[in-house]
Amino acid sequence: MNTFIDQFVEVFAENDYKADAQHYCELNGKSSPKELKEYLEKHFRIFKREYLGVNPDRKDDLYSTMLASHNRILTDFTPAYKEVMNSNNSSLKELFNVKLTVLKKLKEFLNSNPTDAELNSKDTVYYFTVKKEFNEKYEIHLNRLYEGLNNLQLVNCSPVQFKMLFRPEGKQRVKTPEPIIWYSGAYSHLAYFIKYLVKKEFIKRTNLPSVNQIAQELFYDNEEGKKFIISRIKSDIDDDSIFPYVDIKNMVDEKLRLKTRPSSD
Fold first, then answer.
1. Whole-number Å distance between alpha carbons of 237 and 64
2. Least CB-packed of 15, 150, 198, 241 within 10 Å?
3. SS3 of 82, please?
4. What is the mean pLDDT of residues 39-44?
5. 244 phi and psi, to 5 degrees?
6. Which residues, in sequence order, are bridge partners of residue 168?
């Protein structure tokens, strides 16, 4: 079973729409063109990452399966599209044109014989790299950090979801993990946590993308789907002896105390 294709089809095959006399309209559960575009393009990017990560030996069969799925989606979409285009609802027309544009991008992607080179800046894979000094007790450290953040009521996720945000040095993820919810409501608190993990040399400091950029992709602000809006990221905290910085600092110090370094032999 091609799970990622099934998930893609589930999203794009939905053509139910709502429209009322007050000119409210909705397609795929989204009421604005911007929101719908972001939603569909997000799932398109997820599909591309999965597709490009498939073993080359399976690509031909996968291409045939995906092309057939795309054709079925377009066949089902066309009658609804024509019906809306013949209506007087300009808002609904805009939503359907957004979806048609993304479906065309998918067809172009499949017909271009895509390779890893097709990934662009929007397809950057975001995750934190745990330094090799921590490899021996990698799982233990992440479980302890999760426990600490959970006790401070700063995250809302399972241990498995939290650990997906990280990868040992020397290993890579092929796709960005699903973001988790950061509960404190202030980006400075999250930024301090990440900065302190860098200071403790638990995760690597990176430039492209930076650890701040990675954090913005991997954490939601208080609720699912809501990204942090940051006009200016403060690099230093004026006083890390106050709540919650001191609690985060003490928690990280405690949870990483099991650090083991390689033998000098």
1. 54
2. 241
3. helix
4. 87
5. -95, 5
6. 130
Q: Report helix, strand or coil for 213.
A: helix
- Who's near 49: CB < 8 A, 6+ residues apart? 119, 123, 125, 174, 175, 176
Residue 173 in contact with residue 123, Cβ under 8 Å?
no
Q: Count other Cβ atoms within 10 Å, centred on residue 214.
A: 21
Residue 256: the pLDDT is 93
Average pLDDT taken over every residue of the chain: 82
**Rounded to whole angstroms, how far apart are CA atoms 208 and 103?**
30
Up-side HSE of residue 83: CA atoms within 13 Å toward CB?
9
Query: In one letter, which amino acid is 208?
Result: L
Q: Say whether pTM exceeds 0.85.
A: no
Buried b (16+ CB within 10 A) or exposed e, 97-130: ebbeebbeebeebeeeebeeeeeeeebebbbbbb
Query: How does pLDDT run across 63-72, given as a tens digit for each residue?
Result: 778 878 888 8
Q: What is the rounded CA–CA span in Å between residue 174 and residue 177?
A: 9
Q: How far apart are CA 244 and CA 101, in angstroms?
A: 46
DSSP state of 232: -
pLDDT, average across residues 131-154 = 94
Q: pLDDT tens for residues 153-168?
A: 999 899 989 999 999 9
Helices 90-111, 59-85: inter-axial angle, 10-degree rounding: 160
Candidates 79, 72, 171; CA nearest to 129 is 171
Q: Residue 118: enclosing H or E segment and its boundaries?
A: none
Q: For residue 169, what are its two tokens? A: 């040095």
Sequence-ordered list of residues with C-beta below 8 angstroms from that of 225, at least 6 positions apart, any chain:
none
